[in-house]
Amino acid sequence: MTDTVKIMAILTARPGRQADLRALLDGMVAASRDEPGNLRYDLWVDQTTPERFVLDELYVDRAAVEAHRASAHFQNYLDRINALADRSALTLDPVAVA
């Protein structure tokens, strides 16, 4: 069994805030990918609902997730996200992962 942790977050822009949300999320990609414990940090947009974005994140372990959450770029995200989007997130442990 691996210690990796997957995070899937769904963010739907509040009315009139799609561009602001996209800019915030775009700003997270490079900084998050540069974290030593990050294995994947991908941003997706829903094909049928363009104001809905999905973050697909993978970390080497829980300590890497905690380091991500303590980072300046994540703290900036936390300060701004509630004004820009409704969000839900799942933090997942592997069961049967290839």
Give the SSE layout.
Layout: E1 5-13, H1 18-33, E2 38-45, E3 52-59, H2 62-70, H3 72-84, E4 85-92
GO molecular function: monooxygenase activity
Domain ABM: 5-98
Pfam family, one: ABM
Description:
The protein has one domain (5-92): 2-Layer Sandwich (Alpha-Beta Plaits), CATH 3.30.70. It has three helices and four strands. The protein is 39% helix and 34% strand. By secondary structure, it is an alpha+beta fold. Helix 1 (18-33) packs antiparallel against helix 3. The protein has helices at 18-33, 62-70, 72-84; strands at 5-13, 38-45, 52-59, 85-92.
What is the compact description of this entry?
InterPro entries: ABM_dom, AI-2_Isomerase_LsrG, Dimeric_a/b-barrel. This protein has helices spanning about 20-35, 60-70, 70-85; strands at about 5-15, 40-45, 50-60, 85-90.
Notable characteristics:
98 residues, alpha+beta, Alpha-Beta Plaits, four-stranded antiparallel beta sheet, 3 helices, 4 strands, monooxygenase activity, ABM_dom, Quinol monooxygenase, oxidoreductase
